[in-house]
Write a structure and sequence with these properties.
The protein is mainly α and about 80 residues long. The protein has one domain. The longest helix is centred in the N-terminal third of the chain and has 33 residues.
Length: about 80
């Protein structure tokens, strides 16, 4: 049963971490967008170029990853 309890904590902890990471990216996304980079692809390229890791620690951003962060920020 101990494993089941750990599974229940996992998604909540991941969601909390993702929300915190998205919040920390808010000002960075605003800065990127004020430079005229508004498409998801352009923002992903800018985040990758600046060396900002994804929530999972990956070095390369995808447009889908940027969309997920923007969706979290909108809620």
């Amino acid at each position: 049963m101990k494993g089941v309890a750990n599974l229940a904590k996992g998604p909540s902890a991941r969601a909390t971490k993702a929300a915190a990471h998205a919040a920390s990216l808010g000002p960075i996304l605003t800065q990127i967008e004020t430079k005229g980079r508004r498409s998801l692809n352009a923002i992903a390229r800018a985040l990758t170029a600046e060396g900002i890791p994804t929530a999972a620690g990956a070095a390369n951003w995808t447009p889908a990853g940027v969309a997920r962060v923007k969706a979290k920020l909108a809620t």
